[in-house]
Amino acid sequence: METDSLLSGSLDGASGEYGSRTGSERGGAPGGRRMSDSVYGDSSSVDREPGDEELYIQQAVVFIEDAIKYRSINHRVDAGSLRLYRWYYSGIIQWGLGLTIAAVLLLAFAERPSSFSISSDPRHRSPAWQPPCGLTESIEMICLIILSVDVAVKSYLIGWEEFGKSKWLIGYTVVILISVMDWVLSVSMVCDEKLRVRRLLRPFFLLQNSSLMKKTLKCIKRTLPEIASVILLLALHLCLFTMIGMLLFAKNENGEWELHFRNLPSSLTSLLVLLTTANNPDVMIPAYSLNRCYAIFFVAFSVIGTYCLMNLLTAIIYNQFRGYLLMSVQTSFLRRRLGIRAAFQVLTSSSSSSLGRYIPSPSSAHVQTLSACLQLDLLKAFNMSPCILPLQVAQQYEDVGFMDREQFTKIFDELDKDCIKEHPPLPQYSSPTLQKLQLIFSHYYLILFGNAVALANVVCICTVLVLNSEKSTAERDNFVLEIINLCFILYYLFEMCVKIFAFGWQGYLSYRNNIFDGFLTVLLLLLSPPAHRSPRSSETEASGPL
């Protein structure tokens, strides 16, 4: 969840709405706690009960999830909110939200006027299908209801105070309200409105749901003041050379005036084409054909505009994007560190409250509690089952029983390391002949030979198609092409079988290119036309019955 303020509300204390208890909960039942109490407050000042241990572990799990996904920890941390938070950021909910946004954007193709037609040329286009009034509107209203639930859940989870600080969520709410009002007007007018304002606002749903889009817009916003001066120089450059061109190519001297410098708009357009597009000879050649000295004007314009000002503009944009990329990486790094620190503080509180005895340091976390936290569906949720590095590193401290903050942070540094996928071992054959065949069929040269055969297959198909290009469909005899394709398919099938023999079934499936090649081989084998007929039979079929 992207928020504008990363550290606000976390270092100076969070709002009272972040999981604060109600009046009944303050009396003794273990309810939610403020993040400032559970993360950065003094752990000894918070009243703890035995029932709070499960809540501590749930909070630590969510904070670690936030650290892995570079999300902000500015959200509610009571038990009910944590369940809602994990449900909201589950894979199926996020996929459903993405499909909803895609459906809203794709409605433009089906709404009136519909774009569903075979030809795009109005002269040959048949009447497009017009959906009945209420069909697309019903789908749109379902999507708007889902998006309204989305903004309501987001607002509840981060708290109303943070909602007021988030411009994206405020804009999200405003766009939904405008869309609903425009939808009501459309339905009341029986889909006969002239303008649909909500169609102009639909891309905002995609922008607010994508952190990459937000970062790009923020970078553009920061870049515009920097490039404003260069754009002003470009405008002055165009205006100056426009005036010079209108004076240089006088009306009574040559035809260049009539072509490109007839008036101010055409002169600006011609020089803008010369500056920005690739068809600039269209502007220069007519004048250059009359007098070679006219080339000085165009060369000076291109050198100053294209090679100086445009390169300067490119350099400024690149520098701004590079700087913002560095800031974005730093922000993501701070989010991860903040989430890990919050999880450590919560686990420290859990250790001191659950053990009820001496611990080595108030800044130490219990290893068993951390292991339980990591095993609480966290690794499965993030597809980390192939490399359970944090859990393995945590188990190294089981003899000590506790770990400090540096050791805890070091555990999650393993997340930044790439996991090397090991392929299954090759099957062992006792026969020396089979071992030699396995060595041959598992060699890299077999892959190169297979690529050469595939290239030869493409060349053969192209050659036959070129030879038959001038023949009609009735005159073509595809018997030779079918035989060639069948030979290549049989080789592909042979290659797949020998690879399975050399690598084993699991080893064969561990390579994605083998899966792709095997799928194409089986598909070609199933879809290839029968090539067992003779050329005589094909001639008989082509000539028809006597």
Automatic annotation (TrEMBL):
Q: Which UniProt keywords apply?
A: Membrane, Transmembrane, Transmembrane helix
GO MF annotation list:
intracellularly phosphatidylinositol-3,5-bisphosphate-gated monatomic cation channel activity; ligand-gated sodium channel activity; voltage-gated channel activity
One Gene Ontology CC term in the entry = lysosomal membrane
Where does it mainly reside?
membrane
Q: Where is the Ion transport domain?
A: 130-321, 458-526
Question: Per the UniProt entry, what are the Gene Ontology biological process annotations, in alphabetical order?
Answer: calcium-mediated signaling; endocytosis involved in viral entry into host cell
Q: Where is this region: Disordered?
A: 1-50
Annotated TM spans? 87-110, 169-191, 227-250, 294-318, 444-467, 479-505
Q: Where in the cell is it found?
A: Membrane
Bias category Low complexity: which stretches?
1-15
Q: How does it sit in the membrane?
A: Multi-pass membrane protein
In Swiss-Prot or TrEMBL terms, this protein is called Ion transport domain-containing protein
Organism annotation: Astatotilapia calliptera (Eastern happy)
